[in-house]
Amino acid sequence: MARQIEYIYKGVTKTIPFSFGKFRTIYEAAAAEEGIDISNFLKMEQQLEMVSDGKAVKNHRDSYFNKLGFGKIYLVKQEAKSIKTTTSLAGAVKVPVFTRAANLLWIPQRHLTALS
Fold it and tell me: Residue 100 is part of which domain span?
């Protein structure tokens, strides 16, 4: 499943595809997309990871990327792949059901009246 990153760079919101096979973090992917070399930053980050806690590393990363002109950088939440219509077990009422792979959601009719 393809992932996407959304980030703000110099006031412009951008969305790009992302793969953990290609990049270690979403920050690396965003910097590579903008053509920024962060090899020195990555060396410093590795050294910080060895001697300090995760909060210090995160603070260093956030301040560094803010100086480069980045705003928020985050993975885009994936939506359900398909919408299917199915019949509930309690009656012949058809309801749209969001599914992932073969997992089906059955809604009893008594709950459908509460939803309408």
Answer: 82-115
Overall number of domains in the chain: 2
What's residue 110's pLDDT?
A: 58
> Which tokens sit at 54?
């995760």
- Residues paired with 85 in a beta bridge: 96
Q: How many angstroms separate the CA atoms of 48 and 60, rounded?
A: 9
Q: Which residues contact 49 (CB under 8 A, 6 or more apart)?
A: 57
Which residues neighbour 107 within 8 Å (Cβ) at sequence distance 6 or greater?
Answer: 88, 95, 97, 115
What is the C-alpha separation between 111 and 41, in angstroms, rounded?
54
Residue 67 has pLDDT above 60, yes or no: yes
